[in-house]
Amino acid sequence: MRVAYVLATPRAASYKLGQMILPQLEAGTHGVEVAGIFFFDDNTLVLQKGNPIGERLGRLAQEKGILLMMCDGCALERGLAIGQPRWGNPDSSGRQEPAECRVAPQVLEGVQVGCFPDLYAAMAAHPPDQVITL
To answer: Which domains does the chain have, with CATH numbers?
Structure first.
């Protein structure tokens, strides 16, 4: 079974991912294939270069082909992305075409930034069987 995780609650990345899921993935005991992880709010901060959880996750993601994507608005607010929200305007209206938003230099290699349309597109070729929000 393939799963995708959405890290939406406080400490989901530092505790649930860092102390439960990641060690299991590294040991080969997690029990499912992880297709991708989408990071919201302060959970995006673990994806900075030098963060011990992020560094371990980044290596594992490259080895196993796990998508790592940060919410564009969350990343922009925290200085982890450069540009504008991809699918939303400053007045909270939607865009027909995506704006440019790219990962900032201090973010781990291979991490992507986007919003739900980008997540859906990135996972379309190999979709998960379940999505789990933590």
So the answer is: 2-133 (3.40.1260.10)
CB-based contact 103:118 (threshold 8 Å): no
Give CA separation, 69 vs 17, 24, 27, 29, 30, in Å. 14, 20, 23, 23, 20
What b/e readout covers 53-81, taking b as 16+ CB neighbours within 10 angstroms? bbebbbeebeeeebbbbbbbbbbbebebb
What are the pLDDT digits (tens) for 32-83?
999 999 999 999 999 999 999 999 999 999 999 999 999 999 999 999 999 9
Question: What pTM does this model have?
Answer: 0.96
